[in-house]
Amino acid sequence: MNFYGYKRPDGRVGVRNKVLILPASVCASDTTRIISQQVVGSVTFNNQLGCSQVASDQQFTMDVMAGYAANPNVYGTVVVSLGCENCQMDLVVEAIRERTNKPLKQVIIQEAGGTLKAIDMAVRYAKEMVEEASLLQREEFPMSELIIGTECGGSDPTSGLASNPLIGQLSDLIVKEGGTSILSETTEFIGAEHILARRAATPEVHDRIYEIVHRYEKALQLVGEEVREGNPSPGNKAGGLTCLEEKSLGCIHKGGHSPVNAVYDYGKQVEAKQGLVIMDTPGNDPSSVAGMVAGGAQIVVFSTGRGTPTGNPLAPVIKITGNKLTYANMVDNIDVDASPIIYGTKTLESLGDELLKLTQEVACGKQTKAESLGYTEMAIARVCNFV
Amino acid sequence: MLNAMIVEAAKDNVIVAIEPIAKGDTVTYNCAGQEKSLTALEDITIYHKLAACDIAKGQPIVKYGEHIGLAARDIKAGEHVHCHNLEEHRENLDAKG
After folding, report:
1. pLDDT digits (tens, 9 = 90+) for A57-93
2. What global pTM score does this model have?
3. Which of A203, A214, A305, B57 has the most CB atoms around it within 10 Å of its CB?
4. Residue B97 burial (10 A CB sphere; 0-12, 13-18, 19+)
5. Domain holding B66: CATH number?
6. Which residue on chain A is closest to B92 by alpha carbon?
7. A18-134 adopts what CATH topology?
8. A366 contacts chain B (CB < 8 A)
9. Do A246 and B63 lie within an 8 Å CB cutoff?
10. Does the CA dihedral A98-A72-A141-A258 come out positive or negative?
11. Full domain range(s) for residue B70
């Protein structure tokens, strides 16, 4: 199976063709918003971090910034920094250059002479990039070029019964096509980690699965907190999920039945053609999705029970629910109704084939509902407080 | 008409309502090709769980064929199973993988 995408100079293939206005820190985020508003075809996001962070937190932020610039849905990037933040321009540029050779421009607000001059420079750089990007034509590529990020949010019991198994079916089909599927959300492996560990392709991957689960639990305990205090959420519980184990056992269905070939840390570059892999991300949706998109996912497949509008600045997000009431209630936000799996009116296999076709169409340019509504919110995972 | 489902027929002791169920309703589900029925002892919100059999206090609650917690008190077949009668329990799963 093939799709039409954009070839990048680093050899990867995008399904969108955007210019990224990248804020290196919170102090550049309002500026990138103003810049992006002036440049049709550009995207940005609100980076709340980038300064006053401990080393491990700064690494998360740097990996997401570099990964976003390198994501194949991006034609090129204009980095905007304030000038004095911890995520210094040269560090950000170096991190991006380690991942990709795509077009890159830099604007430092303090050096440019303030807001208006920085905006003027960045808008001109970005407009030029959008013009270049608009000349690109889509070419035919095999589905093996795709990296799919999988996510669940606002889960309820239907997530484990229908929408996550459907994502798992898609994941297995993508793996069969030679592509990559990322299973995420370490907090929602808790109580189901043994099932994933049994599917590890190597003893190293087996041990890494336990390691990321224990590391996550321990990190929260170090600050006197427990993962269960906010997970399941009030909405999960109102929907019928009682405890974290039940949520996790439903969550891991997104990984289908393929062997787990690798475990990646948050936001790290995921290689293409890897089959099923895991990324260590939080259960928080926008930051988990951001980690996978930074890893190179061109498309995100997202299940929900309660209903959620979540999108992403770079990757189209395909929304799926197994809850027939939620589908009827939030049809403006949700692309796929998986509830026929529960009621036996359609099989998992036939809906899986339909979802693969939709994924191919989205790869070719079809807008998802989150895209058409303009949803671009995101977050970056964190370890601890600011310093 | 089926108004509930079981995930792992051979192991689970809870079932999931797939329609709204009222107290006294007959709950019917397909268990490995065989239709099984019980009476709901209380109203069950759609997609919430109810006990498929009596579960004694301290016994594991099983869904997806796995332990999701322990019965915080004796639970009768047809009772709603949720935060009020399930005690969370973190098992050490290292040896199970």
Report:
1. 999 999 999 999 999 999 999 999 999 999 999 999 9
2. 0.98
3. A305
4. middle
5. 2.30.130.110
6. A191
7. Rossmann fold (3.40.50)
8. no
9. yes
10. positive
11. 4-96
